[in-house]
Specification:
This protein has a single domain, classed as Acetoacetate decarboxylase-like (Beta Barrel), CATH 2.40.400.10. The chain is 15% helix and 44% strand. It is built from six helices and 14 strands.
Length: 349
């Protein structure tokens, strides 16, 4: 794909966004592996990537499990010269789908590279909300939650006790419904798993992946990941060895002339390069309860129901969100009613 010549961004009014890359220093995450519905995950990825690009780009889920994280980033530092103006902090709740970019060869799907797709992410920082959506294309929504302060400075962090997430949304769709603060999710701590009192810390991303992969993915007797209908390249998870975690998103904006259209639409990947890493399994039980919220249909789209987390752990790390790349971009062409656009379609251009 050719890189287009673009106009320079115009800074005016209040500062609401800054350019990437971003350094994320002092990140603490509580992570929970939840069982979703693989068919629904496939349908969501198909809708967002394959259908949108008219079959030119395809990502498929690698597992029926998703990862939910509750976290806090103490310092998000933008690229120079904006690194001299200050930093932002971000609390977030996110849901991660493990996917692979694939190509079709006959009836076979060949996995080319891994990527994580985050269809739901909630923040309560206006700067982070605007910057994440506009620059990277993160589908950020507004949320209210309290992250335990002790988790930022204590290793290992304290258990995540009763945790609630409220969001700005619509409980149901009807003419009299009002957008307002709405309960979306609760996490309640249970008793530790019997007999699981030994904590083995992780010092690298490879160690964490080695412990988690057998839970997330089906493997053969040699430990090779096996996915029905999908051929896996040996180096599929090479990015993990390099401490890179690519993310994939559909970045788009509604058009001012017809807001049912997108004036810009692109599938983008963003590499997260991990600079510092530590973690540990957590053997407390955690129960997750979701509320039905029409504006944020996570149970319908991901197939997540009320459940006990299959596996829980915490992570502490520093990472850099590097400049991303455009995998596919929708052509805009000319306005439908103009002669050049008509002639282009007529000539098949």
């Amino acid at each position: 794909m050719e890189t287009p010549v673009l106009p320079k961004y115009v800074n005016y009014g209040g500062l609401t966004t800054v350019p990437s890359p971003f350094q994320s220093i002092g990140t603490t995450l509580y992570a929970f592996i939840l069982e979703a519905d693989l068919d629904k995950l496939r349908q969501l990825c198909k809708q967002v990537f394959y259908d949108t690009s008219q079959g030119q780009v395809e990502y498929v889920p690698l597992s029926r499990f998703v990862m939910m994280t509750v976290g806090n980033i103490e310092q998000i530092i933008p690229a120079s010269p904006y690194d001299q103006i200050g930093y932002s902090s971000e609390g977030q709740v996110a849901f991660w789908i493990f996917t692979a970019a694939v190509k079709r060869v006959g009836n076979a799907l060949i996995a080319e590279r891994p990527a994580v797709f985050v269809p739901y992410i909630f923040v309560h920082n206006a700067f982070s909300f605007a910057c994440g959506r506009e620059v990277e294309g993160y589908p950020k929504s507004w949320g209210w939650f309290d992250f335990p302060e002790a988790a930022n400075s204590t290793t290992p962090p304290p258990p995540l006790e009763n945790f609630t997430l409220d969001i700005w949304g619509l409980k149901e769709y009807k003419p009299t419904a009002k957008v307002e603060r709405t309960r979306f999710m609760e996490i309640n701590q249970g008793e530790p798993v019997p007999g699981e009192e030994t904590h083995t810390p992780w010092n690298t991303l490879e160690e964490a992946f080695a412990d988690v992969k057998d839970l997330l993915f089906d493997s053969d007797q040699n430990g090779t990941i096996v996915l029905p209908g999908l051929q896996m390249a040996e180096n599929l998870f090479e990015d993990l060895v390099k401490h890179q975690l690519p993310e994939v998103y559909l970045k788009q904006y509604r058009d001012v002339r017809n807001a049912n259209d997108a004036c810009y639409q692109a599938i983008v990947e963003l590499p997260n390069v991990i600079k510092k890493f530590a973690g540990m399994p957590v053997f407390d039980k955690y129960n997750v309860k979701f509320e039905e919220v029409a504006s944020h249909p996570i149970t319908q789209q991901l197939g997540l129901n009320n459940q006990e987390a299959v596996f829980s752990f915490w992570l502490k790390m520093d990472f850099v969100v590097e400049d991303g790349k455009v995998i596919w971009q929708a052509p805009t062409g000319e306005a439908p009613g103009c002669l050049p656009g008509f002639l282009a379609k007529l000539l098949g251009k």
